Amino acid sequence: MKPTVVIYGSSTGTCQAIAEKIASKLGVEAIDVANLNEDVLKSHDNLILGTSTWGSGEMQDDWYSGVEVLKDVDLSNKTVALFGCGDAESYSDTFCGGMAELYHAVEGAHVVGAVSTDGYTFDDSDAVIDGKFVGLALDDLNEEDKTDERIDAWLADIKPSL
């Protein structure tokens, strides 16, 4: 596997815990997006980016500065995988929408890891493009029992690209 880093934005700790779980399974480092800089991006070929979703589908707040760092680096030679945390019961119409903002921010990169919407219960999500989530969507609040299985299946899917 080429140099890989997991970068997350988390306000309540849920996305951080998931990022650390993903990083542990891959044997790589997880860093808070608040600590993101160009050197981190330039020294890693693979970026696994995660955000929680807030309000009407926005990224976690620290990601807005993080996106500016992403825009300052040429991502065309990077492989990017995305994951998002959301609440499909209370926010069924914006479930994991923050992933869509990350997806658009990494335009030009090789994005891997789209996930079928099968098995999810939600009304709408900006993170669904062409019938699939742009990355791994997780509802650890209401479907905690599915989180590990979803992470393992997603990692098995993206590992060959890393």
Automatic annotation (TrEMBL):
<keyword id="KW-0249">Electron transport</keyword>
<protein>
    <recommendedName>
        <fullName>Flavodoxin</fullName>
    </recommendedName>
</protein>
<keyword id="KW-0288">FMN</keyword>
<dbReference type="InterPro" id="IPR008254">
    <property type="entry name" value="Flavodoxin/NO_synth"/>
</dbReference>
<dbReference type="InterPro" id="IPR050619">
    <property type="entry name" value="Flavodoxin"/>
</dbReference>
<keyword id="KW-0285">Flavoprotein</keyword>
<feature type="domain" description="Flavodoxin-like">
    <location>
        <begin position="4"/>
        <end position="159"/>
    </location>
</feature>
<comment type="similarity">
    <text>Belongs to the flavodoxin family.</text>
</comment>
<comment type="function">
    <text>Low-potential electron donor to a number of redox enzymes.</text>
</comment>
<dbReference type="InterPro" id="IPR010086">
    <property type="entry name" value="Flavodoxin_lc"/>
</dbReference>
<dbReference type="GO" id="GO:0010181">
    <property type="term" value="F:FMN binding"/>
</dbReference>
<dbReference type="InterPro" id="IPR001094">
    <property type="entry name" value="Flavdoxin-like"/>
</dbReference>
<keyword id="KW-0813">Transport</keyword>
<dbReference type="InterPro" id="IPR029039">
    <property type="entry name" value="Flavoprotein-like_sf"/>
</dbReference>
<dbReference type="GO" id="GO:0009055">
    <property type="term" value="F:electron transfer activity"/>
</dbReference>
<dbReference type="Pfam" id="PF00258">
    <property type="entry name" value="Flavodoxin_1"/>
</dbReference>
